[in-house]
Amino acid sequence: MNFSEVFKQSNQLCKVSPDGKYLATCVQYRLVVRDVSTLQILQLYTCLDQISHMDWSSDSLFILCAMYKRGLVQVWSLEQPDWHCKIDEGSIGLVSSRWSPDGRHILNTTEFHLRVTVWSLCTKAVSYIKYPKACQKGIDFSRDGCYMALAERRDCKDYVSVFVCDDWHLLRHFETETQDLAGLEWSPNGCVLAVWDSCLEYKVLLYSLDGRLLSAYSAYEWSLGVKSVTWSPNSQFLAIGSYDEKVRILNHITWKKITQFEHPSSINNTKAVVYKEVEKRTAVGSDDLSLHITIGTALYNTRSKYEICPSPVQIPVVKPDPDRANPKIGVSSLAFSSDSRYLATKNDNMASVVWVWDMQKMSLVAVLEQTSAVRCFQWDPCRPRLALCTGNTTLYLWSPAGCVSVQVPTEGGFQVQSLNWHRSGDSLMLLGKEQLCLCYMDTDQEDNIREFTATK
Amino acid sequence: MPESSLGFISPEVKDTCSSSVECRSPPLIQFSQSSVPLHRNYILSTFCTEHNVQECLSHINQEVSSLGLPPVWTESSGSSEMNVMAVLNCMYDLIQLHHRGLRTLENMEVEQLKSSSNVDHLQRTSTQLKEQLELSKRGNTGLLERERQLHLKVKSLQNCLKNEKDEVQKLQNIIASRASQYNHEMKRKEREFTKLKERLNQLLVDKKEKKQAIDVLNNIGRADGKRSLWKTQKTEAKHEGEMYKTLLSDYDTRQREMLLENAELKKVLQQIKKEMVSILSLRKPIRKDDKHPDAGIQADSEDEEQVFDSSKESVGLFSVHAREKLTNSIRLQWRRLKSHVERLDSQASLAQMGENKTDDAISRETHEEEMDRLKLEIQPCKDFIQTQQQLLQQQLSSPCDEETTSLLSNCYMLQERERFREEWKTLEKQRNLFERERRNCTEAAIRLSHERKAFEDDRAVWLKHQFLNLSPFADLRKPQMSKSKSCFLISETESSASSAPEKLIKCRSDTTSPTPRCVPLTSASTADMHRTVCLVPEKRSTKPNGKTDHVEESRLFCNGNVPEQHEQWNNREDHSSQTLLMESTCSI
């Protein structure tokens, strides 16, 4: 495993282009575009103000930089550095800006969610969509970029509008059976729209593309409900994480619950492997047999490694404050591996633990207990490999073969706050507070992991 | 003085009389015949003087007769001479009576003592019992009190529960009312909010100085290179069409997936059916053995039907009729298989029970017998030892009593002691031996029970294998079971039989051959037989012969007193040997 040198960035605005060739980073009001393979600067653009949002167009030709405070969006072309485009939302304000899937339109949401403005870069045309709902996830584009679902609120009722992204034609408009719609998400095959209610009520509705209600699911009543929803990449499972610390899996044929995954504080499952991170303060130069030697980081004395715990394991649980809103309890993060084989979850009152479930056996496979709270985890887009970070200087990887922790070998204590896989799965972008660094996976990573587990 | 003595004696005599009367019939009759005249000189006490002899005589006579004794003196004898013998007899009787009286008195006293102690004891026990009663009464009251308290507690808890329920109800009502109020408020606020938004929008749109604007250097082309189209009815229709197309394609893929899955499942079903048929057809001969000939025939006809079915399965895979037929036939087969398995199970359990009984009885009986015998043997030995010990002790402890004899017989004693010791030793040894034997016996019994258990396990395994071997998975299981050679052979034949129906038929026809035991004797003839059989694989005609053969064979094997499975098993063995034979003949 190799690490690149460290680059500056601000607001964690760093993105690899969809084609995987370029890396765009924002530093204050400048936008820097690099070649991913050489890390040479290809272009450097200067915006009018500090950039608060940056995004690549789907064809990797344009980059939009939004400055929400100024209500401004600037668009840059990679092919024509001289070309520029500036969209001013004026005094109506701007809270969110995004590309349409075709990369030729920009959707701006104004302040107070008064409307969504659709700007065309082809024709300079502008169109408005009224009554967008301010919620967790009010807009979603289908994976193939054909359709956009938008949550709306009119006359104290929730509606969903389905637009054809090609010409913003309103294809369907229907009322949903929700009290207070919180989010919507297309299935990866673009045929089913999952809509869920706010946390006050456990309700998940499934609509067909043509607006028919396929199914409604509610696990329980009265207590706080849905916290997160995720489709499996093969559209066969819908995972619903809720405030009762459980994940429920719905199937795509009957839309009934197949199983539910609980997150108990004591793990008695003998089939699941519990990896516990232990930090060791070792003297510099001690002949530790772990992977750190091969990486060659003798700079930091604290090293962490995983130990396998025998079966009854007690997991640290933080009791949430019942008086505060949005209690820190329940499953907030769900992620399926690219082959839909594994599901990684995080329960908020066990913030330092990531659970990995096998979707074939419908059982717990692994539990990663970290020393500090998990900030971010993401699956390798090509392999069943999970990367996670906990805001310290270590990167953690899990695969069915085992578990490794790798120290990021940079000076000045690079604290990994967030991470992003490259689409090829060969490299990983690590984001610190003000820095970023690329981590290149060895192609024989699996062997390393195997070795590592063999030494246990 | 005479009064006093008389007074002293008479009550005693009376007493004894009464006591004797009470206790048992007086044995005085023997004296009644003897009437001996009393001699006057004998009476020298103040009671009798020279002058009043007659009166005394009559008086005593009276007294004696009143006591039921023969009279001492009779008038009829005439003279004043008393019959001394009679008097003496009377005296003797009196003394006897007196002694008896004394004895009974003693007895009575002892009895009285006993009874008094008894009474004491009874009184003590009664007091104890009273105390106990008191205690238990106290305990009872305590328990009652506790029960009462618990009842009270339960009542209070029930009250609490009721209150809580009420509270819950109340709170739920409050929540509901608040929720409705809150919803109402929310709606009101939201309306206001939307109104404000509208207003704001209006204002901002109307505002002149800072308008929304887009500033693009030059327009860029669409990603797909086409020009954008006008919104028309046509585009709308196109969009609808596309939407339905995607939906349709999705359904299509799903349908295809399901079709595939269905096909897979159907294949599995077919396979299951085939396997079931093969299993059932394998067990058919056995079934025919036991009083279900009509069922067997039925199965035969169904078999044919199924063969017919399977030949056109590719055609009928997708037709409703075929599907129904398939499921029905599978259901039927399954039912039959289930009943078969159940039957086997019950048989197995029955056999097990029977064996249990016999086995158990024998072992326990023998065991107990042995134990009893040993015990009996041990008891006299022990007694003997004890007596010897006692004797030894006596001899050792009391030599002073017979010092002279001891002196004389010292050497003799020593010798004897030696002898005794030796005898003691041998007895001890014997005892040890007995002990060991007993232990051995118990161990043997334990071992026997173990063995029995192992045997039963073995048999259960064998039964299972036999059942499993009926299925064509047998060849998969082969490596697992190589416990006994015969089993192995069975599995081999089973697998070979189930692998191909032709072979199966062949195997069946093979069963018609004579006993495999006499193969070495009549090898040529059997080979000929085989050849003819192979040429004519007509199963129905050959079957009945085969059946009878089996039965005979099995009887030949196990003397007719083995349960049915064994027969079956033997049949299998036949199969195996036959197949082996087959190979040999082929090679010939």
General description of the model:
The complex is a heterodimer of chains A (456) and B (588). Chain A is mostly beta strands. A six-stranded mixed beta sheet of chain A has the order 28-27-33-32-31-30, with no helix packed on it. Chain A has a four-stranded antiparallel beta sheet with strand order 1-40-39-38, with no helix packed on it. Chain A has a four-stranded antiparallel beta sheet with strand order 2-3-4-5, with no helix packed on it. Chain A starts with a strand and ends with a helix. Residues 283-300 and 450-456 of chain A have low confidence and may be disordered. By secondary structure, chain B is mainly alpha-helical. The longest helix of chain B has 123 residues, at 84-206. At the A-B interface, strand 9, strand 12 and strand 15 of A face helix 4, strand 1 and helix 5 of B. Strand 9 of chain A pairs antiparallel with strand 1 of chain B. Chain A: Pfam families: WD40. Chain A: It comes from Cyclopterus lumpus. Chain A: InterPro entries: Centrosome-WD_assoc (IPR052778), Quino_amine_DH_bsu (IPR011044), WD40/YVTN_repeat-like_dom_sf (IPR015943), WD40_rpt (IPR001680). Chain A: This is WD repeat containing, antisense to TP73.
Descriptive labels:
heterodimer; A: 456 residues; mainly beta; 6-stranded mixed beta sheet; 4-stranded antiparallel beta sheet; 2 helices; B: 588 residues; mainly alpha; 16 helices; 81% helix; elongated; disordered C terminus
Unreliable stretches covering 5 or more consecutive residues of chain B: 1-43, 287-313, 474-588
Main sheet record of chain B: none
* Number of separate strands of chain B: 1
Largest interface: A-B, 44 and 39 residues
Shape of chain B: elongated
Average pLDDT taken over every residue of chain A: 87
Number of helices of chain A: 2
Q: How many helices of chain B does DSSP assign?
A: 16
